[in-house]
Amino acid sequence: MKNVEQPQKKTFSISDLADELDISTRAIRFYEEKGLILPNRTNGNHRIYRKRDRARLKLILRGKRLGYSLDEIAEMIGMAEFDMDEIDQLKKSLAYGDKKLKEIDERMEELQILKQDILAIREKIVNRLAEIE
Questions:
Q1: Using CB atoms within 10 A as the burial measure, which of 10, 21, 71, 120 is most buried?
Q2: Which of 58, 59, 46 is nearest to 17 (CA)?
Q3: Band of the pLDDT at 133, cuts 50, 70, 90?
């Protein structure tokens, strides 16, 4: 039996996206309230999401996973300023990425110092234990 490719969906329900992206419908509605996605509505006032909304949700989730705030994500995906062109959007994303890399470097330095402190204390404990045994 041949694999017949299904045509890609052009619209999605809120539950379709929640299931696909493994998030709650409440989270999707929250992102809508924040203006990060803008779904269409049916006559019955049900949300209808397009491919663009789906792509934005994926970007939002990726941004959250990388530690960006919703305000930062909004700027990077061009929702904070509707007249932002692609060059400005890319520059903004690059600036946020550079800032995040600096924060990561600082945390890594702090963790390295913490590790050295713990290893020094460990060595003292091991030596003391050897003395009293």
A1: 21
A2: 58
A3: confident
Share of the chain above pLDDT 90, in %: 47
Q: For residue 80, what are the contacts with CB-CB under 8 A and spacing of at least 6?
A: 71, 74
Torsion on CA atoms 39, 27, 62, 78, rounded to nearest 10 = 40
CATH number for 62: 1.10.1660.10
pTM of the model: 0.64
Q: Indicate the pLDDT class of residue 6, thresholds 50, 70 and 90.
A: very low
Residue 64 sits in which domain range? 9-68
In sequence order, the 6+-apart residues with CB closer than 8 A to the CB of 49 are: 11, 12, 13, 14, 16, 17, 37, 39, 40, 57
What domain count does the chain have?
A: 1
Q: Tokens for 91?
A: 């520059």
User: Considering the domain boundaries, does residue 45 fall inside one?
Assistant: yes
Amino acid identity for residue 105 in this structure: D
